[in-house]
Write a structure and sequence with these properties.
By secondary structure, the chain is α/β, with parallel strands linked by helices. The protein contains nine helices and 13 strands. Helix 4 (90-98) packs across helix 5 (104-117). The chain starts with a strand and ends with a strand.
Length: 266
């Protein structure tokens, strides 16, 4: 049986990947991050090894010892943890020395390079998950209004610019005014902040980077994001086709429909 490695961050994305990989006839050897990765992952993989976020050499050693020659990175690491709780080992310190620009894209590419240097191919994060990438069109019963489409188009242009600068991937818009831009706090917190500032009835646009590396940091929308949208009485969510992973799709759409929230894929 073929084997594949998994570096698992937080959220349900790693769970979906592990389940799909095993259904596809693969053994999954997972490296999990303490205080980030869901314990549920243990039931979905063949092996799991827990590390603190800075223990890069230990993670590499696990994959090499088990003959892993390909892996997937799934799920993010809370950015504030990288500032407040990171204890880098010697190998990660060398990566930092070689990477003066430490935004997400640069750092993830540098980390991927460490695995590649050991003969471990870093696969697209959508491996085994193509069915979770929605096609263009409106997914919910309610479609965006003409006014919401104006906000979607405006928000998309701004979101692409901030994503290209590696600031964030999400903006909150109302009447062509940007209420919040996602930064280190993450999508859900940006939605809550923007929704409060706009007193509800906002539009949220989430995009991929202009030159998205499909190996990591792909936009993901799940139930928590929908709950945040409902909490602030948002009216519309727009995401990009074939570049956004939509998790728990049926439940997610049912929740949106119940709240009269429009979700459209552009």
């Amino acid at each position: 049986m073929p084997r594949i490695g998994l570096i698992a961050g937080n959220g349900r994305f790693p769970l979906y990947f592990a389940d799909s990989a095993r259904l596809g006839g693969n053994e999954v050897v997972a490296v999990a991050i303490r205080e980030e990765t869901s314990p549920e992952l243990e039931k979905l993989v063949d092996e799991i090894h827990w590390f603190h976020v800075g223990e890069l050499q230990g993670m590499i050693d696990v994959f090499l010892e088990r003959g892993i020659d390909r892996l997937v990175m799934a799920g993010k690491i809370t950015k504030t943890r990288m500032f407040n709780h990171l204890k880098p080992d010697a190998r990660l310190l060398r990566v930092f020395e070689k990477t003066p620009l430490r935004n997400d894209d640069a750092l993830l590419k540098a980390l991927a390079g460490e695995f590649i240097a050991e003969g471990i191919h870093v696969c697209d994060s959508t491996t085994f998950l193509a069915a979770l990438l929605p096609q263009s069109g409106t997914l919910t019963k309610r479609v965006p209004t003409e006014e919401e489409w104006l906000d979607i188009r405006y928000g998309h242009d701004i979101a692409k610019k901030i994503a290209g600068l590696d600031i964030g991937q999400t903006v909150v818009v109302k009447n062509r005014a940007i209420l919040a831009i996602e930064a280190i706090e993450g999508t859900d917190e940006a939605i809550l902040r923007g929704g409060k500032l706009g007193n509800g009835y906002v539009t949220v646009v989430k995009v991929a980077r202009p030159q998205q590396d499909m190996r990591f940091d792909l936009p993901v929308v799940g139930l928590d994001t929908i709950r945040s949208l409902i909490q602030v009485k948002a009216r519309c969510l727009a995401i990009e086709e074939k570049k956004t992973l939509l998790l728990d799709r049926d439940e997610l759409i049912a929740m949106a429909d119940a709240a009269d929230l429009a979700i459209t894929v552009i």
